[in-house]
Amino acid sequence: MIKTDCHLHSTFSTDGSSDMESEILRAIELGLTSICFTEHNDYGTNADGSFVVDTPAYHDRLMRLSEKYTGQIEILYGVEAGLQPSDDIFGYFDRYLSENDFDFIIGSSHVVNNKDPYYPVFFEAYPDDDAAYRAYFEEELENARIYDNYDSYGHLDYIVRYGKTGNTFFTYEKYAYVLDRLLHEIISHGKCIEINSAGFRKDMGYANPHTDIVKRYHELGGLPPTIGSDAHNVSDMAADFDKVEAILREAGYDSYSIFRKRARYELPL
Ligand SMILES: [Zn+2]
Ligand SMILES: [Zn+2]
């Protein structure tokens, strides 16, 4: 069974709605052995400074709560870094990550050309969803090719949640030309991918990325994935982890990865 949730947002994230302590209590109630908070830091994306965590306040609260609940649950200190192929942004994260003692870094693509697919206007820049999806994967490839200061690449096919056609026409095979190169870059840099169970809550019928991408990652020699619910509130924590376990087994894994002080550990399913 999966007993850890390594992708969690609390009110330290701009879009988080549950307090950190209530999430810890929920994790204990669920019988989890470890959780990792991964608050947003999308430096360089929003002019108003949103989605950049107040790191000192986040660190302080997490350390106090970690001590309070010692012996009941392991609480890990992580961040979800919004990756974009830019010297300014990569330079910022290199400094930021060297100055902060994180356990775990999820690298995620939330934008393409610094535009957010969450907003429908994003897709107006492309002739169709297919072109937008290709641009997204190509930008992920660029990130993975030139930057490796992260531990696990988050929700690789995140953009498919937002297109007008959603995942209706989305298959691994259609994008294999870029996805195989992307997986190769991630694997050859010794990084993991994440299986993000939010896909089930977005009515995709699978986690992110698509099960066929997880299978291909395994075929190419990928390390056991990290697992996260991407919960922004207590009710989504560890959601659909039974289905994620089935995906892992179907892809050929009997373990998954977690990180402490940026070092990888494997836990059995
Ligand atoms: Zn994300
Ligand atoms: Zn997230």
Considering DSSP H and I runs of 4 or more, what fraction of the residues is helical? 25-40%
CATH level 3 topology: TIM Barrel
Bound ligands: zinc ion
Largest sheet: 7 strands, parallel
Identify the overall geometry: globular
The overall average pLDDT, rounded, is: 97
Number of separate structural domains: 1
Helix and strand pattern: EHEHEHEHEHEHHEHEE
Percent of sequence in beta strands: 15-25%
Q: Based on DSSP secondary structure assignment, what is the total number of beta strands?
A: 9
Total helical segments = 8
CATH architecture: Alpha-Beta Barrel
Radius of gyration: 17 Å
* Structural class based on helices, strands and sheet pairing: alpha/beta
The CATH top-level class label:
Alpha Beta
Assign the CATH superfamily.
Answer: Metal-dependent hydrolases
Ends distance: 5 Å
Strand line-up in the sheet with most strands: 1-2-3-4-5-6-7
Residue stretches low in confidence (pLDDT < 50, at least 5 long) are: none
Task: Give a brief description.
With 269 residues, the protein is α/β, with parallel strands linked by helices. The chain has helices at residues 20-30, 55-68, 87-99, 129-146, 176-188, 198-201, 211-219, 241-251, and strands at 4-8, 34-41, 74-82, 104-108, 152-153, 192-196, 226-228, 255-260, 263-268.
Protein architecture, described:
The chain is of the alpha/beta class and 269 residues long. It has a single domain (4-268), classed as TIM Barrel. It has eight helices and nine strands. The chain has helices at 20-30, 55-68, 87-99, 129-146, 176-188, 198-201, 211-219, 241-251, and strands spanning 4-8, 34-41, 74-82, 104-108, 152-153, 192-196, 226-228, 255-260, 263-268. The strands form two sheets. A seven-stranded parallel sheet has the order 1-2-3-4-5-6-7. Strand 8 and strand 9 form a beta hairpin. Helix 7 packs parallel to helix 8. The structure holds zinc ion (2 copies). One zinc ion binds next to loops.
